[in-house]
Each structure stands twice: as structure tokens, then as C-alpha cells.
Design a protein that fits this description.
ATP synthesis, about 0% strand, CF(0), proton transmembrane transporter activity, transport
Amino acid sequence: MIPPVQVSPLIKFTRYSALLVGMIYGKKRYDYLKPIAEEERRIEAEEKKKREELERIAKEIAEASCLLHKLDGGKFADSALDPTVHVTDKTVEQCQLQY
């Protein structure tokens, strides 16, 4: 087996310097991007809460529309409160939510 080659101290120094510079750059970049990502997550959480609230309201409106349709015996205008509710027939069995 051939003995290992002696690596120059200059090459060793350069390699470890590049490693250290990369670690320092990564830490600075992480510290720069972290608050931006936290703000984006906070905004996304607020939007998600609003979206879920709107979906809940739409579901309640659909249920109310379906209930009114059942109580009114089909005389109530189809989907008057919520355009996402589609009633194809005037029977109660087909008055279902689209969720």
C-alpha cells in the first residue's frame, strides 16, 4: 500500500478557512431570513383563520338555505342565500351540502 501524501499546510489552511467562512455566511443568512419567514408564517396564520371563518359562515348559510328549502316545501328560491348550494330537484333528499 502506498503511504498517504503529505498535504501542504497552505492547502489545509485554505480548506478550513473556506469551511469557517461558509459557516459564518450561513449563520448570517439564517439570521437575516428568520424574521422574514416568521412574518410570513404569522400572516399565513391570520389568513387561514379568516378563510376558516368564511368557510364556517358559508356552511351555516348553506345549512340555513337547505333548512328553509325543507321548511318551505320547495317554494323558496333555490340557492338564494348561497350560490354554492345546488338543488336539482324540489325533493328534500337532494338538498345536501357541497362540503
